[in-house]
Amino acid sequence: MKLERLVGIDDKKYFVILDSLKRKYKLSRKTLFYVKEYRHKDVFATIMRESLIILIATSLISSIGGLFIEEVKSTFITFLPLIVMFPILNDMVGDYSSIISSRLSSILHKRGAIRKWNNKDIRDLYLQVMTVALVLSLLAGVFAVGITYFYNSRFDFYTTVKLVLIPVVDVVVFVSFLFAFGILVGVYSYKKNYDPTNLLVPLLTSLADLGNMVFLVTLSVILL
Amino acid sequence: MTSPTKEIFISEVFSLAVGLAAGSMLAAYVGKLSVIPGLFILLPGFLELSSSVSSSLSSRITAGLALGVIKTVDNKIVKGNIAASFILMLIVTPILGFFGNILEYIFFGNVEYSLILPSLLAGLVTWAILVPFTIFATFKLFKKGNDPNNVMGPVITSIGDVVGIASLLVAVSLI
Fold first, then answer.
1. Parent domain of B158
2. B109 within domain boundaries
3. How many Å lie between the alpha carbon of B38 and the closest alpha carbon of chain A?
4. Mean pLDDT in runs of 10 for chain B (175 residues)?
5. Pick from A38, A95, A127: CB nearest B12
6. Do residues A145 and A81 make contact, with C-beta atoms less than 8 angstroms apart?
7. pTM for the full model?
8. How many domains is chain B partitioned into structurally?
9. ipTM (interface predicted TM)
10. A166 Cα to chain B: minimum distance (Å)
11. Nearest residue to B79 (alpha-carbon basis) of A30, A41, A56
12. Best exposed site among A31, A162, A206, B121 by fewest CB in 10 Å?
């Protein structure tokens, strides 16, 4: 009942009281906003209002990435392991971009603007992500080639090696690029007094979605 | 292996295993992929949409559970979330299909196959599978004392890929 009364308060009219309540009782701003957002009658409308445009935009951006694959569809169909690798690499790079963006944001909050690129926290994060990326991308390549062997998709030795190496090169190069880009943007946003989290997370994940597909296609066309 | 590396490794191994299942499904239906123009354009956007809708749903329900404003599934906030996720799929999937057709026409000159209906049908099938799973898993994890935010993101993205690809392949086979 108290919650019902709290969420019924008019934000704009009682802004000063709400603000002092937050300060006095150390209420999280997010918590209060959450409670305000979840006035029962508003749940549906709030989600629709805040999600629709961003969902359309992010899905369409990913579809543009798909355009590059459509362009080299015949290469992907001829070299079947590329089709098996596609959802794995898409997922993997997306996951790494989320890890990099959230952890870089935390480092920036903790340490301030980083002056040296070989800062210990940065180095540790890069090594952690790269160790996992190297091992799993290699496994992805081996499994993709192995699985498609049963679909009668067989290649000579050199093509097989190239197919195994494509996910490794893709993940290592592209994740390194995301990392460097994340540091540059993160430090810049921190210096400009923006919260790096708000910029890094959407920027790196969108870049990963679109960029990885373009890079994978380019790599496949060059190597195969 | 250091602890953070181990944590990343474990979640990514799961991602790899499920991704292999999704990729194998795509490879098995390679014949369909080659004859339907625009399917590769539609696919990444469709997978992104399915994962985003379910991840946000899980995250909102987790926040509600943590704040104590959600106690059971039979709750106005949960129902509002379910309805919103349904309508979002209903609106965005035909737009994606239409966009796929437009790009296919502009860049490759193909107009013979409409992606609107397969995209819509696949969206509804994905919603019918992913949303109940998301709600059930979020409640279950929270009740067991885990933070669903740490688990549900990568799980939904991976399972969303399998369900999304399967739904899309079924939809194009039917239509």
1. 41-174
2. yes
3. 7
4. 73 88 90 85 92 88 86 90 95 95 92 90 96 94 84 83 92 86
5. A95
6. yes
7. 0.82
8. 1
9. 0.90
10. 16
11. A41
12. A31
